[in-house]
Amino acid sequence: MSDTQSDVTIETDRVYVPAMIGSEKFVEEAKERVVEQLRARRDSGKHDTIVAVVQSTSDTLYTGTTFESSQPQFGFCAERHALHNLFHTNPELDSFERLFVAGAVPDPNEPVTRPCGACRHALYETNPEATVYCSHFIRESEGWNAFSTIEQYTVAELYPSAYQPAT
To answer: Does residue 116 lie in a domain region?
Structure first.
């Protein structure tokens, strides 16, 4: 069984279609990074989690995974982890181009994983015009039923009423 599927299920007007955008290479590389992360977690006996891949303005990719703690305030989301990895490695950067996020679901008909409110805010403060690809995967005995649906948004579409401090 393949770890990825090339077919895209068309369920909404937000479905990613490679011919429509110029970032097919990013999406393919991000999917590979997600599967690499899932394999590493499986090999170490850990459960599947949300994985995010962010592309810097210099086209470098950074991966993040969710960190879950019994104390919610100590945990963090994959999206913010990936952003942290980007900005920690490149303190001179202040923006990103694209983000891909995928989470484990029990059924391929489940909605795709989208960033939480805190992540949407962090993404918005970093680049409201960046593109966000949202997907999901199902762990199977021989791999993953991965990325059957990918939805595409801008950060501003995901966070339309962003907090704007008074100037």
So the answer is: yes
What pTM was estimated for this model as a whole? 0.83
Within 10 Å of residue 140's Cβ, how many Cβ atoms?
11
The total domain count for the chain is 1
49 lies in which domain range? 18-158
Q: Is residue 11 part of a domain?
A: no
Q: Supply angle C-alpha 43, 49, 50, rounded to 5.
A: 130
Residue 54 has which token pair? 């962010």
* Full pLDDT tens readout for the chain, 167 residues: 333 333 433 334 455 544 444 478 899 999 999 999 988 988 898 888 899 999 998 889 999 999 888 887 788 899 999 999 999 999 998 899 999 999 988 888 888 999 999 999 999 999 999 999 999 988 776 666 778 889 999 999 999 888 877 77
